[in-house]
Amino acid sequence: MQKVIHIAYLILVLDITSLFAQFSITPYLAKRLGFDTIWFGYLQTTVGIIQLLGGPVFGRFADLHGARAALTLSSLSSAVYFVILGCATNVPLLFISKLPAVFMHGMPGSVQMVVTDLTEPGNRASALGRLGLCFGVGMIMGSSLGGSLSTRYGESFAAFVAAAGSLLNAALVVKFIPAHTKKRAETDSATDKNPEVGAGAVFSLSEITRLMRCPGAGEMFTIKIISGLPSVVFQVMFSVIAMNFFHLKAEQTGYLLSYFGLVQMVIQGGVIGRLTGKYSERTLLLLSIGTASIVGLAQALMTNVQEFCVVVIPMMFSLCMFNVITDTILTKSVPSSDTGTMLGLCSSVQALLRTVGPTIGGFLYQNYGVLSFGYIQCAVNLLLFLYLLKSNFRKTEEHQS
């Protein structure tokens, strides 16, 4: 089982490498095609809508048909995505290239499902934390590769290289990933209890809403949305901020994203695992939200890319900790037979935020500038931190009485 987990980690690294190569391609390709901030926001919103539709369905597909089928579908979708992107010489083709994102964004969730299925609940947080380490490696490789290839050989060549990486991923999946990673007995038990869980249940809305009613799931999804929206707005607008506020070229943006990956590697590899072993999930959730509030204030006050590089450290800590803890809590709230669907729902939360984020971000950027992102993140997370702190204190008092 450890070999399968290690191969899953490698597959994620290759996928994130291709993904971040794309992040160094799309903004500059869009600019070359005449996109302004508003139209780039529309493009990002299109991606968010597509991923929002695909997230829960893809997660259910992974639960029912297994990890190999899900990862293969995601890898081939990525290959198609990058081929169309490489051929995009006009605005309609650039929008069409985003259609395969309905399945390609499920790769991280599918790898999460493999790791979740093959680890015990007590070790799940640290195992998911190592996924973040893989994410950091992919960020470094992809950002550097995408920026360098785009600058030297053009955006189309970089996109075709990313497509080749996705095809390599598909081959690794078919060769090494087992068809099913869930324990057979638990899957059969879940099927016996709910006869609807079958081939026809891939598109079952009732199955998805059933998980939303699990104890604590609704609260945690609400927290993910409230705390996540300000940071997602900043993330989806970052390419515009890099070009227009920091005045960076494609290669320089690639190096900055590589720095993100390096910081994330250090945090995931040397910090997250140790903290999850010493402190409760609720405590670490509060820590991540409190840190996000401080990061928002720092973003509002920054004036250059050097100051932003300092802000990146607590920013990446907050994002990594928040995602690991919330995903861990949510996957623990459901049977192992439903972890793929739950992770798909987690992915859809990000997609939902990325659907509304570009529109909000474009409006804020045009009317109030970069500092507005920081002040909103600071205020929202501070209020959420105080609410959760009061809620935890009240629960402690009730338990003691």
Automatic annotation (TrEMBL):
<dbReference type="InterPro" id="IPR020846">
    <property type="entry name" value="MFS_dom"/>
</dbReference>
<dbReference type="InterPro" id="IPR011701">
    <property type="entry name" value="MFS"/>
</dbReference>
<dbReference type="Pfam" id="PF07690">
    <property type="entry name" value="MFS_1"/>
</dbReference>
<feature type="transmembrane region" description="Helical">
    <location>
        <begin position="78"/>
        <end position="97"/>
    </location>
</feature>
<feature type="domain" description="Major facilitator superfamily (MFS) profile">
    <location>
        <begin position="1"/>
        <end position="393"/>
    </location>
</feature>
<protein>
    <submittedName>
        <fullName>Solute carrier family 22 member 18-like</fullName>
    </submittedName>
</protein>
<keyword id="KW-0472">Membrane</keyword>
<feature type="transmembrane region" description="Helical">
    <location>
        <begin position="284"/>
        <end position="302"/>
    </location>
</feature>
<keyword id="KW-0812">Transmembrane</keyword>
<feature type="transmembrane region" description="Helical">
    <location>
        <begin position="157"/>
        <end position="177"/>
    </location>
</feature>
<feature type="transmembrane region" description="Helical">
    <location>
        <begin position="252"/>
        <end position="272"/>
    </location>
</feature>
<dbReference type="InterPro" id="IPR001958">
    <property type="entry name" value="Tet-R_TetA/multi-R_MdtG-like"/>
</dbReference>
<feature type="transmembrane region" description="Helical">
    <location>
        <begin position="221"/>
        <end position="246"/>
    </location>
</feature>
<feature type="transmembrane region" description="Helical">
    <location>
        <begin position="6"/>
        <end position="25"/>
    </location>
</feature>
<dbReference type="InterPro" id="IPR036259">
    <property type="entry name" value="MFS_trans_sf"/>
</dbReference>
<feature type="transmembrane region" description="Helical">
    <location>
        <begin position="308"/>
        <end position="330"/>
    </location>
</feature>
<feature type="transmembrane region" description="Helical">
    <location>
        <begin position="127"/>
        <end position="145"/>
    </location>
</feature>
<feature type="transmembrane region" description="Helical">
    <location>
        <begin position="370"/>
        <end position="389"/>
    </location>
</feature>
<feature type="transmembrane region" description="Helical">
    <location>
        <begin position="37"/>
        <end position="58"/>
    </location>
</feature>
<keyword id="KW-1133">Transmembrane helix</keyword>
